[in-house]
């Protein structure tokens, strides 16, 4: 799997740094963010149409809004790769 680095939180301290990559081969986004605290996790679970718990193999993460352009770029990259 070859990931294409798209961007890192511009306000990063280089230790706690939400990051966005595009996996164009798999057609997926890869996001690194802050793990959900118990209250956010419970809110995610309660508001999900599945009304279930988040599986141990998954996690809710927070990404700052200032990273939206990077997420859009990653979305465009994986969308383009699906078309080719």
Quickly describe the structure.
By secondary structure, the chain is α+β, with helices and mostly antiparallel strands. The chain has two helices and five strands, in the order ββββαβα.
Percent strand: 15-25%
Number of domains: 1
Mean pLDDT: 90
Could you tell me how far the N terminus lies from the C terminus, measured between alpha carbons in angstroms? 18 Å
N-to-C order of helices and strands: EEEEHEH
Helix content: 25-40%
| Quaternary organization | single chain
Q: List the strand order in the largest sheet.
A: 1-2-3
Q: Outline the low-pLDDT stretches.
A: none
Biggest pleated-sheet summary: 3 strands, antiparallel
Radius of gyration: 14 Å
Query: What overall form do the CA principal axes indicate?
Result: globular
> What is the tally of beta strands?
5
Helical segment count: 2
- Given helix and strand content, the structural type is alpha+beta
Structure notes:
- The strands form 2 sheets. A 3-stranded antiparallel β-sheet has the order 1-2-3, covered by helices on one side. It has a two-stranded antiparallel ribbon with strand order 4-5.
- Strand 2 and strand 3 (28-32) form a beta hairpin.
- The chain has 2 helices and 5 strands; from the N terminus they run ββββαβα.
- The protein has one domain (4-83).
- The radius of gyration is 14 Å and the shape is globular.
- The chain has helices spanning 38-47, 68-83, and strands at 4-8, 19-23, 28-32, 34-35, 61-62.
């Amino acid at each position: 799997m070859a990931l294409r680095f798209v961007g890192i939180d511009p306000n990063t301290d280089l230790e706690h740094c939400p990051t966005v990559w595009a996996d164009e081969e798999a057609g997926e986004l890869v996001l690194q963010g802050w793990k959900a605290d118990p209250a956010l996790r419970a809110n995610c679970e309660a508001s999900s149409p599945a009304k279930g718990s988040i599986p141990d193999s998954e996690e809710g993460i927070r990404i700052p809004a200032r990273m939206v352009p990077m997420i859009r770029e990653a979305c465009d990259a994986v969308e383009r790769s699906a078309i080719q």
